[in-house]
Amino acid sequence: MMFISMLLLCAAIATGTPGVLVSQESFADMPTYNIFTNEELRRDFLRMEYKEPLGRSELGFFLLIPKTWEEVPITVSREQFEHDDENLISLALLRAPEKKVQVEVAYCRLPETIELEKWVPAYLEGNGLGLLRFQKGTFSGRKVFDTLLKAPGDYKVRMTFSRHGDKIFIVSGSAPDSLYEKYMKVFGLAVVSFHKL
Fold first, then answer.
1. pLDDT for position 87
2. Is residue 2 part of a domain?
3. Domain contains 131
4. Is residue 36 part of a domain?
5. Cβ atoms within 10 Å, residue 91
6. What's the structural domain count of the chain?
7. Mean pLDDT of 162-169
8. CA 87, CA 69: separation in Å to the nearest integer?
9. Nearest alpha carbon to residue 46 among 7, 94, 97, 20
């Protein structure tokens, strides 16, 4: 069962959220550095902590989400778990008051011999997601492949991939094209603040 910690973010954690890019500059529509002030973080955001998502402590993580967002319950069957090497398994779904806007955390199991940089383009193509731009770097101590995508239904998605052993974790923020700019900072904070427990 998921445990959600409703703790306000302290300034020490807030200063740890900016990512450090190692290969490319940040893009204006993919905010990465100093996304919100410490005051905004304390006032408007929560640290959402999942110690045992779907009953599995090895999948635990936290990230920062606006206080006004709601968690959407997730159900995953035993069969889906048994095939986590074939499909993404959703671990958390958080929705904005504007219901078409959300942040999702998912994972899949992938042999460690497969490079993230090679797997991601194949995954995107296979799921009908158009790559607008990408950057590689380090967010909160983890190496990432960070993308901005064009998705079916006139959506934009910021999807950030990171490897943790034999698992790939994916944090994605999605919104209709018309709302993406309004929420891109929230998505940036979610993907940069994600941290495995």
1. 87
2. no
3. yes
4. yes
5. 22
6. 1
7. 94
8. 26
9. 7
Q: Residue 74 carries which side chain, given as an amino acid letter?
A: I
**pLDDT number for residue 16:** 38
1 part of a folded domain: no
Tens of pLDDT, residue by residue over 91-126, are 999 999 999 999 999 999 999 898 888 899 999 999
How far is Cα 131 from Cα 30, in angstroms, rounded to an integer? Answer: 13
Scanning the structure block, which residue is given the tokens 């950057």? 135
- Rounded CA-CA distance 43/33 in Å is 19
User: Domain span at residue 93?
Assistant: 7-196
Give the type of residue at 167.
Answer: K
CATH of the domain at 159: 3.40.1000.10
DSSP, residue by residue, the chain: ------EEPPHHHHTT---EESSSPPPTTS--SS-S-HHHHHHHEEEEEESSGGG-GGG-EEEEEETT-EEPP----HHHHHTTTTS-EEEEEEE-SSTT-EEEEEEEE--TTS-HHHHHHHHHHHTT-EEEEEEEEEETTEEEEEEEEEETTTEEEEEEEEEETTEEEEEEEEEEHHHHHHHHHHHHHHHHH-EE-
